[in-house]
Amino acid sequence: MKENLLVDTSKQFAVEIFYLCNAIRDRKQGNALINQLLRSGTSIGANIHEANYASRKKGGGGGGGGGGGGGGGGGGGGGGGG
After folding, report:
1. What confidence tens digit (pLDDT) does each residue in 45-66 have?
2. Contact at 8 Å (CB) between 29 and 54?
3. Distance between CA atoms of 25 and 30, rounded to whole angstroms?
4. How many angstroms separate the CA atoms of 1 and 73, rounded?
5. In three state form, how does the secondary structure of the chain look?
6. What global pTM score does this model have?
7. Which InterPro entries match (predicted)?
8. Domain map of the chain by residue range?
């Protein structure tokens, strides 16, 4: 039951992130930030799905629904040297 709540919440979060990014994109501000927010916000559901799949594959009785959003989270930039 708890896993379904987590899946449902992550799906709703991804939808809200999508709408937020579209609203901000219409203003043509911060496209790099918007793209990162969209990737990271939607990757939560994919990570939950992957964790559930790995748990079931190991035989650890994880039940409960499929994953949420798509997209993988992009990597962050590297640090600069001195």
Report:
1. 889 889 888 888 887 655 555 4
2. no
3. 8
4. 27
5. CHHHHHHHHHHHHHHHHHHHHHHHHCCCCCHHHHHHHHHHHHHHHHHHHHHHHHHHHHCCCCCCCCCCCCCCCCCCCCCCCC
6. 0.60
7. 23S_rRNA-intervening_sequence (IPR012657), 23S_rRNA_IVS_sf (IPR036583)
8. 2-58
The gap from C-alpha 76 to its chain's centroid, in whole angstroms, comes to 15
How is residue 53 written in tokens? 């799949």
AA letter at 73: G
Tokens of 22: 């579209």
Cα of 25 vs its chain's centroid, Å:
19
Spell out the residues 6+ positions from residue 19 whose beta carbon is closer than 8 angstroms to its own: none
